[in-house]
From TrEMBL:
<dbReference type="InterPro" id="IPR001412">
    <property type="entry name" value="aa-tRNA-synth_I_CS"/>
</dbReference>
<dbReference type="InterPro" id="IPR020058">
    <property type="entry name" value="Glu/Gln-tRNA-synth_Ib_cat-dom"/>
</dbReference>
<feature type="domain" description="Glutamyl/glutaminyl-tRNA synthetase class Ib catalytic">
    <location>
        <begin position="125"/>
        <end position="217"/>
    </location>
</feature>
<dbReference type="GO" id="GO:0017102">
    <property type="term" value="C:methionyl glutamyl tRNA synthetase complex"/>
</dbReference>
<dbReference type="Pfam" id="PF00043">
    <property type="entry name" value="GST_C"/>
</dbReference>
<keyword id="KW-0030">Aminoacyl-tRNA synthetase</keyword>
<dbReference type="InterPro" id="IPR050132">
    <property type="entry name" value="Gln/Glu-tRNA_Ligase"/>
</dbReference>
<comment type="similarity">
    <text>Belongs to the class-I aminoacyl-tRNA synthetase family.</text>
</comment>
<dbReference type="GO" id="GO:0005524">
    <property type="term" value="F:ATP binding"/>
</dbReference>
<keyword id="KW-0648">Protein biosynthesis</keyword>
<keyword id="KW-0547">Nucleotide-binding</keyword>
<dbReference type="GO" id="GO:0004818">
    <property type="term" value="F:glutamate-tRNA ligase activity"/>
</dbReference>
<feature type="domain" description="Glutathione S-transferase C-terminal">
    <location>
        <begin position="28"/>
        <end position="85"/>
    </location>
</feature>
<dbReference type="InterPro" id="IPR014729">
    <property type="entry name" value="Rossmann-like_a/b/a_fold"/>
</dbReference>
<dbReference type="InterPro" id="IPR036282">
    <property type="entry name" value="Glutathione-S-Trfase_C_sf"/>
</dbReference>
<dbReference type="GO" id="GO:0005829">
    <property type="term" value="C:cytosol"/>
</dbReference>
<dbReference type="GO" id="GO:0006424">
    <property type="term" value="P:glutamyl-tRNA aminoacylation"/>
</dbReference>
Amino acid sequence: KNLKDDRNKINNWIDIFYKNDPSSPTPINEILSEIESNLINNSFLAGDQLSTADVCALSYFDKCRQFKNCKKSQHLTNWIERCLQHQLIKNNKFCNITTQPDHSGCTLEKGGLFLELQDAIMGSVVVRFPPEASGYLHIGHAKAALLNQFYRDKYNGKLILRFDDTNPTKEKEYFETIILEDIQLLGLTPDQYSKTSDYFDTLLNYAEQLILNGDAY
């Protein structure tokens, strides 16, 4: 009976990994939660012995970028380490799974970790920082602004400072002046300055054309 139960557990786990695409953007929280609950009382997925279920899980997570970058519980980390130390896994290096975060495609610049922009073309990258003149800049604004400038400089591109002035009841000229002063203090050097309202006529024309084409109502 125990052998049959173990076989059923193994088959159930294999079905889970077979039915889920590791490259899918769908969150894997449910799978991780089920695994973690199972590992509370078990060393491996189907009991106290390494099985095909564990091998399938390792193979699945090896192809799943979400898993590589997600925060792992102690149960999950211990399970991975146990699997990787098993002689069967050591003798058959079929995956590069690790308990460490995946930083492939990243570069270290001035003490920080930055992702490369996939398929970016030198000289063609355009980034923008769109503050709203309805309050002061905060640390999140500073991070976004400096990150955009970093990529502008890295790819010899263009940085646009565009005030998002679409909420006139809250926006004030005072805040716009303060924001411009703060941007200078941060060392931000935009290549182009504009306001969303500069393009209202263009946006209206596009909207009307969409309606005439039957693509909007």
